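Priority: medium. Attachment 1 of 2:
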């Protein structure tokens, strides 16, 4: 029997696919140890959204997490991370020096393998990052990304397209140790999985390691893996309960059971895996499991939303109070895929699709071209598999003020390390390679999440269903608090009119009712500045009395990993600021005035 290799993805992709990557290291370290004791030899330990999420939502350093993961796993276990070509693990495309620093830092912090993919399947975006991974002494698993196209679409994401991409990888001279066919949305037809891997095996020969990756989101993950295994793949990604099935990878025990009676086996100790499952369940017993993460979502077959992005987006929609729009956004996403050039729906392109669909639903179709989607159709992240819709390209050119770009994206990026070093020196922060990478990788148009973290801003936004409170010893004899004097004046509004009401403190009897004074009016010529969409106030760049000019950015609203500037509609002085950092605002809500 052929023994199928597997990687346990529970503690990276599982966290991303269920919790939007928000999981605290202290909570899951026992599950790492339990997995090692159960005989699991290969685990996913970081990368992807788990890099930025630790800094932005968990108040932790991803480098510290990787160190602790390695310590808990022991020295022999293979630890793998996920990289996105020229984005590596950053919020945007990175220059060559940062791409090289990424590989060296992940090697330094205990990783042995890096899976490397490009959402556009533009092989140019894989060459330099792959070379850096190999130069750092890491196992480089190069990936071809897969999905199912929306109904009526053709021209890519079929067997000939994937084999063409594989030939481009081979012809490029890109160094690799293994090859992965990665379906982040779990939507590829199982027959397509079989035919693709069968053709790849014939092209590569019997010695090349071929891996398959999918999610159970559409309910066909185990069937996809059976097809891939029968076609000749050597390894698959699996997860442990409660981080298996649904938006996650297929369950370890489920696939083991499905292979019974065949020529293949996982060669696992079922009892030991079940014990490791129990430990993982105990570790996560206080976490909120979104219902959408634990079910089959058949709509993704029409709008391929990756499991790793689905709950990250629904968590953010919960944060901004827009979860009720989810079904409409998913429906609108299909058009974004169909007209955007067929980039694979996997980070960051899946986020571009979702952000644009979100904008189309909340602001009107194509009224707001989002930065990521717009730059993608204009070519700034590489070549899309097919040319985008010319009408969409024209809208992007007009709204973003950028021309179509046909060059190699990495050639256009200035070195990042000198910039990051200058920022650290200016702020008086330690200039270490880790800090350089943190600042360089977490820069956004509206600020720098990495710098905020290093300066002590470490917000924790991890959803749990209960909070364990530490027991405190009972107080001996607490003095009785002094009686609180109750108010005797109230402001009451009736039929739109406001009154001041005085009552007797003892009996509550009304003593007098008088019209309330009108509130202090804003300056007569004050101009209202309103939000255009719902979001969280992430940055405020103004102060009352400060002079601003038309077009200046006043406030940054963040929604769905998308930063939207609120700009001054005119010249003047800031008369008032009506919101505060961290506040959720709604469309047309007043955020400031300018006099």
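Attachment 2 of 2:
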């Amino acid at each position: 029997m052929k023994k199928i290799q597997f990687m346990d993805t529970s503690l990276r992709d599982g966290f991303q696919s269920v919790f939007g990557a928000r999981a605290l290291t202290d909570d899951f370290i026992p599950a790492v140890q339990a997995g090692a004791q159960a005989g699991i030899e290969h685990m996913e330990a970081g990368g992807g959204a788990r890099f930025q999420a630790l800094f932005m939502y968990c108040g932790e350093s991803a480098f510290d997490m990787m160190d602790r993961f390695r310590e808990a796993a022991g020295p022999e276990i293979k630890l793998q991370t996920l990289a996105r070509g020229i984005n590596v693990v950053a919020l945007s495309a990175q220059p060559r020096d940062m791409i090289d620093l990424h590989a060296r830092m992940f090697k330094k912090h205990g990783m042995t393998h890096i899976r490397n993919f490009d959402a556009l399947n533009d092989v140019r975006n894989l060459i330099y990052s792959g070379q850096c991974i190999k130069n750092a002494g890491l196992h480089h698993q190069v990936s071809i990304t897969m999905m199912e196209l929306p109904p009526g679409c053709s021209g890519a994401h079929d067997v000939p397209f994937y084999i063409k991409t594989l030939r481009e990888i081979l012809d490029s001279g890109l160094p690799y140790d293994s090859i992965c066919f990665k379906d982040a949305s779990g939507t590829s037809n199982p027959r397509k999985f079989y035919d693709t891997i069968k053709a790849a095996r014939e092209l590569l020969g019997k010695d090349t390691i071929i891996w398959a990756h999918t999610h159970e989101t559409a309910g066909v993950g185990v069937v996809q893996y059976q097809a891939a295994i029968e076609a000749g793949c050597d390894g698959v990604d699996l997860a442990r309960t409660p981080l298996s099935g649904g938006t996650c990878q297929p369950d370890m025990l489920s696939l083991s059971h499905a292979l019974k009676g065949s020529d293949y086996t996982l060669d696992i100790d079922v009892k030991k895996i079940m014990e490791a499952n129990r430990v993982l369940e105990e570790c996560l017993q206080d976490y909120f499991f979104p219902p959408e993460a634990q079910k089959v979502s058949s709509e993704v077959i029409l709008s391929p939303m990756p499991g790793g992005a689905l709950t990250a987006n629904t968590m953010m929609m919960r944060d901004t109070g827009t979860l009720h729009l989810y079904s409409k956004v998913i429906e609108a996403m299909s058009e974004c895929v169909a007209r955007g050039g067929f980039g694979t729906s996997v980070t960051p392109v899946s986020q571009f699709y979702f952000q644009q669909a979100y904008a189309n639903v909340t602001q009107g179709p194509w009224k707001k071209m989002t930065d990521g989607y717009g730059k993608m159709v204009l070519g700034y992240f590489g070549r899309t598999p097919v040319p985008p819709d010319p009408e969409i390209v024209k809208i992007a050119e007009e709204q973003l003020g950028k021309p179509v770009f046909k060059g190699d994206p990495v050639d256009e990026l200035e070195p990042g390390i000198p910039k990051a070093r200058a920022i650290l020196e200016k702020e008086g922060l330690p200039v270490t390679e880790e800090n350089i990478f943190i600042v360089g990788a977490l820069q956004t148009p509206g600020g720098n999440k990495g710098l905020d973290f290093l300066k002590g801003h470490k917000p924790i936004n991890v959803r749990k269903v209960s909070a364990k409170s530490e027991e405190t010893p009972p107080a001996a004899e607490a003095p009785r608090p002094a009686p609180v004097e109750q108010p005797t004046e109230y402001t009451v509004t009736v039929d739109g009119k406001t009154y001041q009401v005085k009552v007797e403190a003892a009996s509550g009897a009304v003593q007098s009712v008088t019209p309330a004074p009108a509130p202090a009016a804003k300056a007569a010529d004050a101009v209202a500045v309103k939000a255009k969409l719902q979001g969280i106030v992430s940055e405020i760049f103004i102060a009352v009395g400060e002079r601003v000019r038309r077009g200046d950015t006043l406030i940054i609203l963040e929604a769905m990993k998308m930063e939207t500037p609120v700009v001054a509609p005119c010249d003047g002085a800031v008369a008032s600021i009506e919101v505060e950092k961290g506040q959720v605002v709604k469309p047309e809500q007043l955020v400031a005035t300018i006099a």
